[in-house]
Amino acid sequence: MKILIQAYKFPPVNHPGSIRLYFLVREWIRLGIPVFVQTSANQSIFPQDPSLALEVTQIRLINTRDARKLVTSPPRESAVNDRFRRMYHSFPFVYWAGDGGRTYIRHSIRYGGELIQKEGITHIFSSYRPWSDHIVANALKRKFPKLKWIADFRDRPVDPIRRDVWWPKLQELYQSRLIRSADALTTVSEGLAKYFRSLHKNVVVVRNGLPNPPTGFLSAPVGSHFTLSYTGRIYPRWQTLAPLFKALRELIDEGELNPAHLELHYAGDQGQLWAELASEYTLGYLCVDHGRLGLNETQQLQKSSQVNLMCSWSGADYSGILTSKLGHYLAAGRPILAILNGPIDKELDVAITTTNAGHLYYKGTTDKSAELKNFVLQLYRTWAFSGAIPWRISSDLLTSYSWPDQVNHLFSRLQD
Q1: Do residues 88 and 163 share a domain?
Q2: Which of 12, 84, 175, 209 could form a cystine bridge with 52, CB 3.0-4.6 A?
Q3: What is the rounded average pLDDT of the residues 226-255?
């Protein structure tokens, strides 16, 4: 087996999609599988993390002409920017102006074809987003029918809640035609897999696994403050932190929580937004902004936090939005408070509640605010008594979340 990775963003680019590739490729290298990479030549415009560097068999930087520099990260909120971003990720514009653009697509197909013939590549792995990588993989699959194509999707391209593309019906038509020739579709959750199974017969769930195997030991970092930490991107249109900030405000007003003990930590590019959301409940002065951190520094923050915060969203017949931080939070072994903006997501409930990882708040038929408030209060009281919160996640229930298990499951399905 020899694998070609077609990826617009590839490690050491510090991006959720690149981090997913990092752990997948790390496992393939560990198994002795030669890995070849084609990626964009404009890697330098993205944040880098040297700890994500990989020693692959060969990497080629493909010349790229696109509008990526105009798509700021994080983007400024405006009607014009919103329309531009939706166009940027929509067919037929992705062929010319989307990530990579026509030059990247054309050169990737040319050099990829030469590499397949020269090195005897047997598999190609491409991941959405962007569409350009799937377009390249599709072209190479048609040119080399025996090539096994694995098309990875971290999100739904046409999302009924985010609504971040133009002409959804047209996008679905392009999507279904493009992925038809793939040998397997991979995605990060059963909720997303349910949707993709309506488009393809061989859909495999490859979760964003744990960066390190869980130890099963009790974790109890001592801290001078009761710290609640959030790492990564905030999506204010779909996520909500209001239930937590409201509970904290009430506990402070009731005299149950001393604000001098509390710190709200954030790591990422949206520290100002984090402070603004907290300030709506007069908590902005308690925020600590770490900025963007590398993977190792982020994991250290998660391990030292008293509580790690996770936000997601759901809807009717819409679930499985499991962000990449879930695996990292589980590996950190600290209490997780997950806030779901929508009805219960059973998959997330299993990951959080069944494993004793923490508490899941969701919008049910009854108000769940008192349960969230009590969860925070009990953790605070434990910390106030000893300066630490002893916590143990059921590690035996997390083996299926490990990266080796994810890769083994994928290979077993490819051999079916």
Answers
A1: yes
A2: 12
A3: 96
Helix (H, G, I), strand (E, B) or coil at 13: strand
> What pLDDT does 291 receive?
96
Cα dist from 340 to 280, 286, 335, whole Å: 19, 23, 16
Q: Are residues 58 and 114 in the same domain?
A: yes
Tokens of 29: 């290298």
How many Å apart are CA 158 and CA 284, to the nearest integer? 35
Nearest CA among 143, 79, 83 for reference residue 111? 143
Confidence of residue 406 (pLDDT cuts 50, 70, 90): very high
Question: Containing domain of residue 353, as a range?
Answer: 226-396
141, two tokens: 């699959």
> For residue 355, is pLDDT > 60?
yes
Task: Give first-to-last CA distance, the chain, whole Å.
Answer: 16
Res 364 pLDDT > 90: no
Residue owning tokens 């130890």? 215
My answer on whether 63 and 76 are in the same domain is yes
In whole angstroms, give the CA distance from residue 88 to residue 98.
Answer: 5
Choose among 156, 209, 152, 208: nearest CA to 7.
Answer: 152
Residue 140's H or E segment, with its range, is: helix 131-143
Predicted confidence (pLDDT) per residue in 82-96, tens digit: 677 777 777 778 777
